[in-house]
Amino acid sequence: MDRNIRVIKTLVFVTVAAYFTYALYWFSKSLLWIAEISLKPENYSPPTGFRFINSYSISSAFLMEYSGFLGLMIRVVGASYALLSAFLILKTKSNSFQTVRNKIANAILLEGLYFLSFIPAIYFLLNYSGLPSTSNLLLSTGLSAQILLISPFFIGLSFKVRKYDPGADGSSILRLAGLASMSYVIALWITYISKWAEMTAVESINWLLTFPRNMGFLNTITNLSLAVVFAVMGVHHVLRKRDVTKTARLWGLASIFLSTHIIIYVLYCANFGVLNFIQFGELWTIPLLGVGIYLVLKKPTAPRETQKTFP
């Protein structure tokens, strides 16, 4: 096996393993929570509190909790397909796409369906949450962005992958994969910006500009924004059928800044005594740093004429 191929396969496997671990962690954590509220429903109250308590608000809160748990279950199954696919690709020397095609399609489909489980949470936030109305609106905006920007592209990509013949032109599937990845990064950017805006609306602008919170905000507004910029540039190159090597490097830069954002977020939480918040970051993106560095620094081994453009 070519050394470059072995390296990228290993880096991808580590990233997928981190994604699986992250999904499994939240599923396990939610399993305990669901068991607790199911065994003692009379003691249940959502973290947001209730705007008012009646049968509709209580039913909506439980629907939000059980839908979220179902979504995490779906995500763990999808992550299992992804991990198995990455393992099979890693250990196979030849082209193994035909073997893992359906597994990859299942992983992408289930990740897309996972975000649809947020819909009851949006309904609850906008109708029954005890948080300030601005907070409910901004938190709903982040959830809605993930549904609208991630689910359609991932579900569409899963069908495209399932039907793809390895001998056929791969340009269309590459474009859709690029759009799906770009939309994922943009959705994360909207989510984090919405969270900062929500906290600022509650605490005031002075709260945001006070150290060390201003450092956390600066991390998001720079690194995560740069991840979006390079992801958009990468997709632009794909759609225009530009140099495949330069496109890979743009996606590599997007991966580096996405990972760097979370690494700094973890260091920020650890350094300023808010360790409990670490778990809320997209920790599985940290290994993307290795993937990104590889894509930026790698030297194509194929003949130059085959590296110039997409099919």
Which short descriptors sum up this protein?
single chain, 311 residues, mainly alpha, 77% helix
In short:
The protein has 311 residues and is mainly α. The protein has 11 helices and no strands.
Could you characterize the architecture of this molecule?
The chain folds into two domains: 1-167, no CATH class; 169-311. With 311 residues, it is mostly helical. It is built from eleven helices and no strands. The chain has helices at 3-39, 55-91, 97-116, 119-127, 133-163, 171-203, 205-209, 213-239, 244-271, 288-297, 304-307. 77% of the residues lie in helices and 0% in strands. The model is unreliable at 300-311 (pLDDT under 50).
Number of strands: 0
- The tally of helices reads 11
Apparent shape: globular
Strand composition percent: under 5%
Supply Rg.
Answer: 21 Å
- Report, as a whole number of angstroms, the end-to-end distance: 25 Å
Helix content class: over 70%
Structural class by sheet pairing and helices: mainly alpha
Run of helices and strands: HHHHHHHHHHH
Note the quaternary state here.
single chain
